[in-house]
Amino acid sequence: MPRALNPETIAPPLGLYSHAVVSDGGGRTLQVSGQVGIASDGSIPADAGEQSELVWRNLQAILAAADMTMADVVKVTAYLTDPADLAAYGAVRSRHLGDCRPASTLVFVSALVKPELKVEVDLVAVTE
Prior knowledge:
Strand order of the largest sheet: 3-6-4-5
Helix content: 10-25%
Radius of gyration: 15 Å
CATH superfamily: RutC-like
Order of helices and strands: EEEHEHEE
Strand content: 25-35%
Largest sheet: 4 strands, mixed
Distance between the termini: 7 Å
């Protein structure tokens, strides 16, 4: 089971994440490509919150297909095109991660692969 590391000798995390996550022993590792807010019918919602919801649903579906859950996630990297969308993204992320605190990085970028996309998230999960 992954274990969070937040040393007391450094400032605590700025949000709902851990500075590092250790996965002891072997196990299976799942590297998930960046997921974007495109629905199964190919449509792309205009709203960053709706795109975020699709992204996290996609991530959960991929984890389930690998017989994993959010509890197995050790690293999340998110890319947003507009700082104004941070609150909407953060609310969706928090709801899907629950009490899980993976290591995390969030970066604001000028664009994603399609101009209408606002959110992309990739992750790494490890299970015994």
